[in-house]
Amino acid sequence: MRYAPLGLPRPGGSERRGGPVALLGLAVSQTERIYGMRELTRILTLTPRRTGQLKRLGLLHGDSGYTFRDLLALRAAGSLLDAGASVRQMRQALDGLRTRNPGLEQPLAEVRLVLEGGRLLARSDRVKFEPRTGQTVLDLDTPSLEQAAAATLVTGLVRPLAPPVEQAETWFERASEWDGDPAQWDDAVVAYRRVVAIDPTYAAAWNNLGLLLHRMGKYDEAREAYGAALEQDTRCCEAVYNLGSLAEDRGDVDEAVRCYRQALDFSPDYADAHFNLAGALARSGHADEAVGHWQRYLELDAGSPWARIARAHLEVLDPSGEGKESTKE
């Protein structure tokens, strides 16, 4: 999930999870953005076990070169695995779809797969079918809004075969296209609200909604949205990080420190959380502790434009460099 191209995250600024336009990779054209493995790991909260499963499915193939379509396919695969689908089951389904329709570039991003009664089925228009044989399983009634919301828990698509306008992923994609342009923030907010109305469990959409509201100065609403993201994903480190940024913007440095610490409890190598925690600690009179976090930030993200700022702080707080060996946590 990606971050709006409004410049790199500012010190003390917010970051967000999920979405199709973001600075998690470099833009190679006006319509295509590329992600690296580091960004995917953060966006999808990949564990070593899940990474291995996705590699066996052929969805992870190196350190870079991933498109938004790949990102959606990875999210869909993760949801299906969480729902109980096996790697073998999914490989057979994907192989069957590719064999029957060679034009599919990324089946998981173009065809909705659902797990029912231990069976992995493909869904198109008003029918479900066995992906390996194409045999129809069952006619479907037109899904209600509640049914559509439930279906999005185990799906991810960019180009639905017959998308209803209420499809959560479709609205998420639209919102993410709009949230990079301040002139379209109101539209993006409406779109994210539609996503969470369809699928209230969509933590990334709640988090992105919160970030937009935060940027628009609607702090109370932003806090509610970040809180909703954490209700749906209690270890959403980006939402906790954003709550820390919000606390700083409201002048509550102690709460910001608490939130940044919690984000690092969830993700110890979260570079931006180390950066902002260091700044908050320095401002609250804990310069010695700040040094370790500045140094850890440099270990994790030495090539970032913010590394120069971290080094400048270290020159002031630790001119002798004596704390250099104490940075790893």
Question: Helices, strands, pairings?
Answer:
Elements: H1 37-44, H2 48-56, H3 68-83, H4 87-100, H5 107-110, E1 112-116, E2 119-124, E3 127-129, E4 136-139, H6 145-151, H7 168-178, H8 185-198, H9 203-215, H10 219-232, H11 237-249, H12 253-266, H13 271-283, H14 287-301, H15 307-317
Antiparallel strand pairs: 1-2, 2-3, 3-4
Task: Return the average pLDDT rounded to an integer.
Answer: 76
Q: Quote the beta fraction.
A: 5-15%
Question: How far apart are the first and last residues' alpha carbons, in Å?
Answer: 27 Å
Count of individual beta strands: 4
User: Which strands sit side by side, in order, in the main sheet?
Assistant: 1-2-3-4
CA radius of gyration is 21 Å
Helix content: 40-55%
Rough outline:
elongated
Count, helices:
15
- Class of secondary structure makeup: mainly alpha
- Major sheet size, sense and barrel closure: 4 strands, antiparallel
Q: Regions with pLDDT < 50 over 5+ consecutive residues? A: 1-31, 138-166, 325-329
H/E element string? HHHHHEEEEHHHHHHHHHH
Account of the protein in words:
The protein is mainly alpha-helical and 329 residues long. The protein has helices at 37-44, 48-56, 68-83, 87-100, 107-110, 145-151, 168-178, 185-198, 203-215, 219-232, 237-249, 253-266, 271-283, 287-301, 307-317, and strands at residues 112-116, 119-124, 127-129, 136-139. The chain has a 4-stranded antiparallel β-sheet. Helix 9 (203-215) packs antiparallel against helix 10 and helix 10 (219-232) packs antiparallel against helix 11 (237-249). The two termini are 27 Å apart.
